[in-house]
Amino acid sequence: MKAIYVCLLAAAGVMSAGAVQADEALAKAKNCLSCHAVDKKVVGPSYKDVAKKYTAKDEAMLAAKVIKGGKGSWGEVPMPPNPSVTPDEANKLVKWILSLK
């Protein structure tokens, strides 16, 4: 019985790691990583800094910023709009970013 429990936990870990990799791949595919990195500031803030600043209650606002762009939250450099990102993709990206706490 204990072996089954350990196998289930391992499978859950592999599945969640796959989701993280898939969302990082989505960020690459949508050119998000041209201006952002997971753990350091590039043009925009690191995703870990974004995760520290915002919570799950901010998901809708952040998803809208992914698509429409924004300015003023992290300094003078605006984030350009990215209309190639669908609302579903924006939600996936935001959930991934916020999971990086």
The major beta sheet can be summarized as: none
What fraction, in percent, of the residue positions are helical?
55-70%
Mean pLDDT: 86
User: Helix count, per DSSP?
Assistant: 4
Here the CATH topology equals Cytochrome Bc1 Complex, Chain D, domain 2
The low-confidence parts are: 3-18
Query: How many structural domains in the coordinates?
Result: 1
- Tell me the CATH architecture: Orthogonal Bundle
CATH level-1 class: Mainly Alpha
State the order of secondary-structure elements, H for helix, E for strand.
HHHH
Q: Would you report the number of β strands? A: 0
Mass-distribution shape: globular
The CATH superfamily is known as: Cytochrome c-like domain
* Beta-strand residue fraction: under 5%
Separation of termini?
Answer: 33 Å
Q: What class do helices, strands and sheet pairing give?
A: mainly alpha
Rg from Cα = 16 Å
